[in-house]
Amino acid sequence: MLEYSISNWFRNHFFQNYHADEYKRRGQRNPIYWQLESPDGSFSCFVYYHEIDENTLPKLRGQYLDPRIDELENELETLNTQTSGDNPDKELLNRKEKVQNDLNDIREFRDTVDEMIDDGVTVDVEKGIWDNIKEWDQYEVLETGLPKLKSSYSR
């Protein structure tokens, strides 16, 4: 049995305790799975470096971000209705606040993904993994930014 839930393990331990040790090339550790995450962590996903192409970000948006935003908008609408009367339930108010925060966070992330799509961001394997990470890191979508990645992978 895991000490953590699988999602927490991936989010908090995968890169540091597994990924960095598993993938080594010429003595250098290369992160081939990238964790993309919204600014406040409401949305997180992994992409495989060697499969990133011009369709990756549009797929991310269309298959994952937009549906999640729709779900949160629907839940927020329901919560607004449920909390509109006098003396609304505190648990519902707390949930409403969390849903609103998550929605704002994921919308911000979607806007960044849209900017990356407009800028034509993808991966050029000829540049090498670190140059590609550097380009993606400019948009602040990597859960672990470039300076921290470099230090943890160059031991």
How would the blueprint of this fold be written?
Elements: H1 6-12, H2 14-22, E1 24-25, E2 28-29, E3 33-37, E4 44-48, H3 56-82, H4 90-118, H5 129-137, H6 146-153
Antiparallel strand pairs: 1-2, 3-4
Helix pairs in contact: 3-4
How would you describe the overall organization of this protein?
It is a single chain. The protein has helices at 6-12, 14-22, 56-82, 90-118, 129-137, 146-153; strands spanning 24-25, 28-29, 33-37, 44-48. The protein has 155 residues and is mainly alpha-helical. The strands form two sheets. It has a two-stranded antiparallel sheet with strand order 1-2. It has a two-stranded antiparallel sheet with strand order 3-4. Helix 3 (56-82) packs antiparallel against helix 4 (90-118). The radius of gyration is 18 Å and the shape is elongated.
Widest beta sheet: strand line-up: 1-2
How many DSSP E strands?
A: 4
- Quote the average pLDDT: 85
Q: What is the overall shape?
A: elongated
The parts where pLDDT drops under 50 for at least 5 residues are none
Number of helices: 6
Bin the strand percentage. 5-15%
Count of the domains: 1
Helix content: 55-70%
Q: Major β-sheet, in short?
A: 2 strands, antiparallel
Beginning-to-end CA distance, first to last residue: 30 Å
Radius of gyration using CA atoms only: 18 Å
- Helix-strand pattern, N to C? HHEEEEHHHH
